[in-house]
Amino acid sequence: MTTTPATEITPAPSSAEPPSDRRSRRAGLEEAVLPALVALLVAALVGDVLILSFGQNPGAVYRLLIEGTWGNAYGFGQVLYKATTLTFTGLAVAIGLRAGLFNIGAESQLAAGGFAAAMVGLLLPAGLPALVTLPIYVVAAAVGGGIVGGIPGLLKARFGAHEVITTIMLNFVVLALLNYLVAAHLKVPDTLHTRTIKGGALPRLSVYVAAFHGSAANMVIVLAVITVLACWWFLFRTRRGFELRAAGLQPLAAEYGGVHVGNVWWRALTLSGALAGLGGLNFVLGYKYYYEDAFASGAGFLGIAVAIVGRNNPFGVALASLAFATISQGGLAVNAMVPKQMVDVLEAVVIIAVAASVPEVRRLLRGAR
Amino acid sequence: MIVLVFLAQTLRIAVPYLFAATGGVMTERAGLIGLGLEGYMLGGAFCGALASYYSGSAWIGLLGAIAGGVGLALLYAVVSIRFRGDQVVVGVAVNLLVTGATEFFLRLAFHSSANSPRIPSFSVERAGAGAALVGNPLIWIGIVTVFAIGWLLYRTPFGLRVRAVGEHPAAAAAVGISVERVRYVSAALSGLLAALGGAYLVFDQHQFSAEMTAGRGFIALAATIFGRWDPYRAALACLLFAAAESVEIQLQSVQLIPSQFVEMIPYVLTIVALAGVVGRAIPPSALGRDAG
């Protein structure tokens, strides 16, 4: 267990590093883009088979999928809303993988972040300006997710407990605990959600662009963009970020070079949990204004796919989250023609195809040179 | 009498765990992470329901379940061994694939997004807990399986190879063992066993329903780890987890402890075991790593 399973899929970060010459930039780009193309092709083929098996015309279904997502403002707003949450959980998983750690706990960290924000929202006095409340909410969500991420981090640093298992197990523990707290104590009768927060809700995008009317897209997306930039800066422009990547690429060499790898581990998982926790703001602060049991509904797990397809690069994560948000929303758009579960299958196919083709493509490209 | 009901109920809850956890031991001892157990169970349950419904025979249903579970486990094994995909990523993806695919084909085959029609199964109709125990062969197969896997792992050359491949694949390869072949066979066995656990659920409930495994594969994975990758200890862990659930069901009317806290027991115990306060759980050393 000295080598973590993440090392195989954590790419040599050539695509993200400032290129030493044009050739290495091109090689890095090929290595990043080819697996995604392979995945898209395989997913389209599997999608054809599923659609045909349901007696529908693949062309018509795909057209409907595009029209229902990028073809109108409401659909696009929904894509942006889903992509916002996925950006946070994708960044969470990516930061972990950069440190050589696999955080499977984004699902419960996301929920804990949303829960903490909602609790703070219930306690805050009404009427405070957003300038005051927003930082409080951000800290609350980050702390909520950070605690859930930090526990496996400490267990890893202190006892060597494998983070894959502890984060999975903690998912079940935390989600059951939150379910208990809401169902037994905090819920509005006959629902599974808390009361509405008193202030500091962020406006929907429809306030600024009327065409978005009805969609859940909201100003938390700005926070997501800032977070993407901040993560890139942290990873590639700071000493701590360098230590984190060094520990992920070669823990023994990093240790020899003066990095305390144990400290990197728990810090990285805490940061990872905090990033996932921030995703909870999208639901609590921007969409529903309360905490609802099981609101994460798989967005944490999909963060793994987003990080893998985005090659653990913050900008790649942002693009991948748009792609997966499109597929998710597209499933709802075509549900009248084929069951929306088709997109779960397609997402899984994309993940498997990327996981299988990343090492293969790297081998082929390196062999060719 | 109450004790007997309690024991029968514990055993009924434990059987799917026993199957999946022995499968977990097989795959993890060979160095492949058992993240896909949940998917093999659910996929096995669905294929079992399909085969049973269309053939009218529970035994053919059982074969269908096995085919489904083995197929999924081999998909996982091929992607992570032949293509060197990351085991954790592929395991998570297999679970997502099965959740989506079973519901998709549920609509296709039975025009329902919730459950299949009633299927032929083993269990005795409308009988007490005792009769249901005697009437369902899978319960006895489950108990025998634990000892069979124990024998396979500790008393046969193949078992020795599995353990060697999971601890030190390079050394195993050096003495002429085909690391990949051993891993494929172990993965297929884990798929077979987990699918039997899924089939048990289907036959116990006389139908397939969407997401019916409800995390049981992860409880089995917890039992694998809490049982320190040993089939007998894993089986005891399954019984312990099942007993806790059984107590909770018995005490439901009293509301002594909220059910959510009983749900947490397997996971909390596993985390504690991994952190190693007493008798630390140490995984096979090549778990999650490539064959090379």
Can you walk through the features of this model?
The complex is a heterodimer of chains A (369) and B (292). Chain A has 369 residues and is mainly α. Chain A has a domain at 87-316. Chain A has helices at 22-53, 58-67, 73-98, 106-123, 130-159, 163-186, 220-237, 239-249, 251-256, 261-278, 280-284, 299-309, 314-333, 342-368. Chain A is globular. Chain A starts with 21 loop residues before the first helix and ends with a helix. Mean pLDDT of chain A is 90; it is low at 1-19. Chain B is mainly α and 292 residues long. Chain B has one domain: ABC transporter involved in vitamin B12 uptake, BtuC, CATH 1.10.3470. Chain B has helices spanning 2-29, 37-55, 58-82, 87-110, 129-135, 137-155, 157-167, 169-174, 179-205, 216-226, 231-250, 259-275. In chain B, helix 2 (37-55) packs antiparallel against helix 3, helix 3 (58-82) packs antiparallel against helix 9 and helix 6 packs across helix 7. Chains A and B meet through helix 5, helix 6, helix 12 and helix 14 of A and helix 4, helix 10 and helix 12 of B.
CATH fold descriptor of chain B: ABC transporter involved in vitamin B12 uptake, BtuC
Count of β-strands of chain B:
0
The beta-strand count of chain A equals: 0
Shape estimate of chain B: globular
Q: How many helices of chain A?
A: 14
The helix/strand class of chain B is mainly alpha
Percent helix range of chain A: 55-70%
Summed over residues and divided by their number, the pLDDT of chain B gives a mean of 90
How many structural domains of chain B?
A: 1
The biggest beta sheet of chain B, please?
A: none
Question: What's the tally of helices of chain B?
Answer: 12
Relative strand content of chain B: under 5%
- The SS-based structural class of chain A is mainly alpha
- Low-confidence spans of chain B: pLDDT under 50, at least 5 residues? none
Oligomeric state, counting identical vs distinct chains: heterodimer
Shape of chain A: globular
- Which H/E pattern describes the elements of chain B? HHHHHHHHHHHH
Which architecture of chain B does the CATH hierarchy give at level 2?
A: Orthogonal Bundle
- How much helix, percentage-wise, in residues of chain B? over 70%
Distance between the termini of chain B: 56 Å
